[in-house]
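Q: What structure does this chain adopt?
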Amino acid sequence: MHVILAIGPGPTPIVLTAVALTALMTAAVIVVLVGGRRLTLRWTLASALLVVAGNAVVIPGLPSDGWPGYASWPIGAGTMICIGLTLRQRIAFAWVSMGALTVVCLAWSINGSAGPLAGLGLVERQIGVLLIGTLFAIGLRRAARSAAEFAEVQRRQALERDLAETEVRARGDAARRVLAVAGPTLELIASERTLDIWERARIAALEGRLRDEIAIAPLLSESLDHALNAARSRGVDAVVLTEASVGDLPTAVRLRAADWLASRLNQVVGTQFVGRVVLRGRDVRVSAAVDDAVEDRLLLDE
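A:
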């Protein structure tokens, strides 16, 4: 629309019209096509200066003996670009640009015979349009923020559901593993015959395995599971103690703690092993006590 008004008949020389049209179209292209949610400072300054320049080329040359009509088209075009700036999160620059346009219009009216009110008359409606555009941009930004927060809540809820389902599956798998291991031993106990020393060791190992599945489920890994079973098969009374909050640690930290304990279990030559995993603020302390010797290490929650 503003292009049609620009190329139509009017009091402005065609060269100045072309200059103003080029400046304003360039500013519009910057506002619309430059990437990013928030227009960068460099492009914002460029578009604002082009808006003011496009109006400064045309407005001072308008006839001052009456209402210029559609010949003041750069003001409307500049207002649309200012609304674009508000949508690109540059509200302050949009209003500074509108203030500069107001100064240009006042200068035109003061230098001519129309009087200051005529200059204000050129921009008063445009100020109202920009005010509405600004309120729309603010409302749109808040709506987008609310939509993003809602999407984040949905993402977290989906993640929590997935974690809960994973935990349920893991517990089911653990229960099936325990039943698979415990089945033959339970049949052995039910047989009511006298058990030899190896069978008693087997029952003790099963007891430890069941205790592990319950007490250290968040910490239990393949390496730690194998190390515990191997140590118990060697006759070591192996116990690992943890806190309930260990399950909230990142997987990588829990695996590091489990691997450290597994490496100590594989080296045990004593008769009793007690491993501990406790929290100290954001850090994790693991310890291994073999008979009377104690070794510990601090793992950072990275």
